[in-house]
Amino acid sequence: MDLNLISKLIVVLVILICVTFVASKPQEFYKFRLPNIEITSLRYLEEKQSTDLLSAIDAKADIKRVFPDGTFPYTYHFFVLRYNGSIIIFSTLSSPSEIKKLLKKVNVEPIAVDRILLTHIHKDQIGGLCENGKPVFENATIYISEQEARWADGEFNNMIAPTDDNLESQKQAQEIFKIYGARIKRMPNSGEPIFDNVYPMPSYGHTPGHTVYRFELEDKTIVFTGDTFFASEQLQNPGIYLAKGDNADFDPKMAYNSRQDLIDYLASDNIIFFSRRFTFPGIGTFDQRHNFKTWNR
Ligand SMILES: [Zn+2]
């Protein structure tokens, strides 16, 4: 074989290897667009966890049938919104370094974030807000439900004995409230929008004041479901819940009722909903027969 042919073959081989590598690499971002809003879903964590962490609130909820291999998907997609000219996020992960690294992937500096819509105060939501006693997000307004803020202040600790994880979250939240001062907006449960047709909706139970967010766009309503669900399987089996670990439901019965209410609402009007816990990109809708469909990419 002459040398020229060999070098041509090598080039073809290298191209083939590159194409195969790119094709097999999971997609890292997904951009969803409607008028006035662009939502980037970023793939952050994809794991499996043991069903030993789960429990069932009613006899119909059969964990073994729903997760026959003894594991359930444990994912974390991160949503970055550009809405009416502002940048919005819903959580700040567990630490400043993690959130900074992730935002860099979408070319967003923490200083550019305008609003943080907290759903609740678990550590994986608020851990990246402060660094060495200073705010990481120097221009952001932080939204939290009045009910959740009161829990952070220790008000409902006689309801259910708080776990060590809960106590740690509460302590961390109190520090954050001090550091951010007037930029923490405590939202009353009034049904009023907090800005530009964005409505907080109580979905209590995962934590005492857990809140989801509804955006009423021009001809579509979209909802960010926070930690109301730990996996899409709960849409058909809301009686199964996360009972152990630092993301367990605080009040399983209350969380179950909230899940049922939210499912009924989401199914009622062909709403598009976003969950960090569902199959990437974490976007779903119900079809006319109320079957759940992940977003068709
Ligand atoms: Zn949580």
Describe the structure.
This protein is of the alpha+beta class. The chain has one domain: Metallo-beta-lactamase, Chain A (4-Layer Sandwich). It contains seven helices and 17 strands. Strand 11 and strand 12 form a beta hairpin. The model has no long low-confidence stretch (mean pLDDT 91). It binds zinc ion.
Entry summary:
With 297 residues, the chain is of the alpha+beta class.
The CATH topology label is Metallo-beta-lactamase, Chain A
Query: Into how many domains do the coordinates divide?
Result: 1
Instruction: Report helical residue fraction.
Output: 25-40%
What's the count of strands? Answer: 17
Share of β-strand residues: 25-35%
| Largest β sheet strand count, sense and barrel closure | 7 strands, mixed
Rg over C-alpha atoms, rounded to the nearest angstrom? 21 Å
The quaternary state of the protein chains shown equals single chain
Q: Strands of the largest sheet, in order across it? A: 1-2-4-5-6-9-10
Low-confidence parts, pLDDT < 50 over ≥5 residues?
Answer: none
Query: What is the number of helical segments per DSSP (H or I, 4+ residues)?
Result: 7
